[in-house]
Amino acid sequence: MSKILVVDDDRAIRESTAFALETAGHRVWRAADAEEARAIIARERVDVVVSDIYMPGEDGIELLRSIAARKHPPAVILMTARGSIETATIASKIGAFDYLAKPFDVADLVGRVAAAVAPKETAEAVEVIAPESMIVGAHPTMVAIYKAVTRIASVNVPVLIHGESGTGKELVARAIHIFGARSEGPFVPINCGAIPDTLLESELFGAVRGAYTDARHDRRGALARADGGTVFLDEIGDTSPSFQVKLLRFLQNGIITPLGSEKPLEIDVRVISATHRSIRSLVAEGRFREDLFFRLAGYEIDIPPLRERATDIPLLVDAFRRRIAAELARPSLGGPTTEVLELLQQHNWPGNVRELEQAVRRIIIDCGSLADAGTASRVLGSLSDRKPLSAGTVVEETVDAPLTSLDEAERQHIASVLQATGGNQKKAAFILGIERNTLARKIKKYGIPIGRD
Questions:
Q1: In degrees rounded to 5, what are phi and psi of residue 189?
Q2: What is the CATH number of domain 153-302?
Q3: Cβ contact 252:209 at 8 Å
Q4: Average pLDDT of span 107-117
Q5: Is the pLDDT of residue 265 over 70?
Q6: How confident is the model at residue 297 (pLDDT cuts 50, 70, 90)?
């Protein structure tokens, strides 16, 4: 029989978790906060602490730190309904035994407790400071990704990330870099699908002056710029067979030769790649080298589409709301109503997390808050009406959406952003992604009235 301490400010969760563990034969103590938990640990020999992360006052991470500092600390299993890659990584580095997303299967919890009390090696606690939150989600598939990142970050092997467009493949790649041994080195992303094949080789390997037309000076490629750090090759499945041969050669020997040069360079870089395609299918079709696939896929991570983790939408919306409120200098911007959240959770989100962020921004700019279900429905309707254009597609006029010139469309968008920022050109330029001087010229060009600067 093991001695377990359950810590959660939610009485219902605390009691149900304790009951499940008692039914499994364990002796269980209960605590409503970190202070009460430390008092129990001080007077009782506890084998495992099962604690919530987000609690009033001192949170579960701080409780974990204080437990890890003890001479003979009990194992700690953290629970959360608001998971993030930072909390999962911090928990692992400090010494948490496991990290579970609420709601969890009782059998899974009992199994993890049994594993926690099994004989194991102890590790020294490490102080870790996390960056601002990058990836948010408490769905079990996301928690599995957090654990995968924690495991693989310090292991110097290539990683291949699978996921639809907009799911956050680059964010996962950056997390692996940040939490790995190369975090002090550069992170250099390259979108292989956006660069013509004729230029991709020079973009990756570099070129010397005169190597090709318009090569007027030496150019350091992405691999050289990422030396000592990480290069991220997005949409690797879109590359040509000839480029794949050259990339394979580099992965085999770590040496590059810039175009037009005879001097080889030895490069120390970690390669993380990503694709929205099925590489295995491309290999079967003869469109992707099998030997390159094995070189790239030292470890594989699959990111689920947003429609398969719709329970994370409230967490994502809250994260986007805070970010957009900071951009618009509106700290009092409230959260969404239940009706708006229901609309967002019912949407299919073919563009995944990136599309959700765009929709939240549109709703806030159009109505000034996330409380108007009518605006939310209209924005989601406009997203649903958009259909990807394939080669040869003809765009037809519609009577309910009259076509306008590019200048008029730009004028309307700039005017709406300026209105949302109260006429603050600095914030508007930041949101629009242009220089302030450029914005000023466009305001003058279109004759857009502004309230203040």
A1: -90, 140
A2: 3.40.50.300
A3: no
A4: 82
A5: yes
A6: very high
The CATH superfamily of 3-131 is Response regulator (3.40.50.2300)
Between CA 80 and CA 62 the distance in angstroms is: 14
The whole-angstrom separation of Cα 205 and Cα 218 is: 12
**Ranges in the chain annotated CATH 1.10.8.60:** 306-385
Is the Cα torsion angle 145, 151, 154, 160 positive or negative in sign? negative
- Average pLDDT rounded to a whole number, residues 144-158: 91
pTM summary value: 0.63
List, for residues 78-102, the tens digit of each pLDDT value: 888 777 777 777 777 888 888 887 7
Pick the closest to residue 345 from 383, 302, 380, 387 (CA basis): 380
Rounded to a whole number of angstroms, the distance between the first and last alpha carbons of the chain is 68
Higher pLDDT, 70 or 407: 70
- CATH 1.10.10.60 intervals, the chain: 406-446
Which of 420 and 337 is assigned the larger pLDDT?
337
pLDDT of 216 higher than 90: no
Mean pLDDT throughout 52-75? 88
* pLDDT the model gives residue 215: 53
The predicted structure's pLDDT at residue 389: 39
Answer for the pair 330, 377: CB distance below 8 angstroms, yes or no. Answer: no
Of the candidates 372, 453, 370, 448, the one whose C-alpha atom is nearest the C-alpha of residue 416 is 448
Architecture of the domain delimited by 306-385 = Orthogonal Bundle (1.10)
pLDDT: which is higher, 318 or 132: 318
Q: Are 100 and 112 in contact (CB under 8 A)?
A: yes
Please, where in the chain does CATH 3.40.50.2300 lie? 3-131
CA distance 141 to 136: 12
Q: For 406-446, which CATH superfamily applies? A: Homeodomain-like (1.10.10.60)
